[in-house]
Amino acid sequence: MTPMTAARTPTSADRPPLGLRERKKIKTREAIRTATYGLIKEQGYDATTIEQIADRAEVSPSTVFRYFPTKEDIVLTDEYDPILLEEVRARPADEPWPDTIRYVMREAVRTGVEEDEEVARLRTHLMVQVPAVRSRMMESMSVTGRMLCTAIGERTGRDPDSLEVRVYAMSLIGGLMETSLYWAENGHRDDFATLVDRTLEVLQHGLPQENP
């Protein structure tokens, strides 16, 4: 999962249609997430229980746990990490790597934040306000980072387990997490796409000589 949530959902032209079973799984996950977000907005994170979530989503508590091992996972987990990697793989082979990352991140912002900004604001707010959510986010970063290492290796011909690739991938993931936290800590008043551009500039060129 990515801190800001998403990338474009592929169209039928991009991939074969999902089977009935997979569509039902996605529908169930979405129902659980929707129920969770609604309850959190109504009564807060700590007061929201798995039993309440299950009741509103019209599933059993065991079903909730089958899809999401913890309440924090409901807030943080999305369907988009594999799609994000597909976007990386779909870019032209001769495109410079920084341009690829910038394009994919802009697409992620456009679909993950701009198209559902209310959810993006809630998720990042919880990352700041709820230690358990932030801790779980840190744990999940390593999984996303390893997936990104694989994509970088495929695109650049480098060993995905090399120190350089691992450091770059985790720097990117960590930078995006800090961008999300900064956005929420400052009342979501900044344009998130602009913040992501600033993050990518720092990762590519280092600290600027003067404060922006």
Task: Report a brief summary of the structure.
The protein is built from ten helices and no strands. It has helices at 20-43, 50-57, 61-67, 71-76, 80-90, 97-114, 117-129, 131-156, 163-185, 192-205. The relative contact order is 0.13.
Question: In words, what does this structure look like?
Answer:
The chain is mainly alpha-helical and 212 residues long. Helices cover 71% and strands 0% of the residues. It is built from 10 helices and no strands. It has helices at 20-43, 50-57, 61-67, 71-76, 80-90, 97-114, 117-129, 131-156, 163-185, 192-205. Helix 2 crosses helix 3, helix 6 packs antiparallel against helix 10 and helix 8 (131-156) packs across helix 9. It is globular, with a radius of gyration of 18 Å. The two termini are 29 Å apart. Mean pLDDT is 85; it is low at 5-14.
Share of residues in strands? under 5%
Order of helices and strands: HHHHHHHHHH
Q: What share of the residues lie within helices?
A: over 70%
Rounded average pLDDT? 85
Measured on Cα atoms, how large is the radius of gyration? 18 Å
- Low-confidence stretches are 5-14
- In angstroms, what separates the terminal alpha carbons? 29 Å
Described by strand count, sense and barrel closure, the largest sheet is: none
Shape: globular
Number of helices: 10
Q: Count the E strands.
A: 0
Structural class designation: mainly alpha
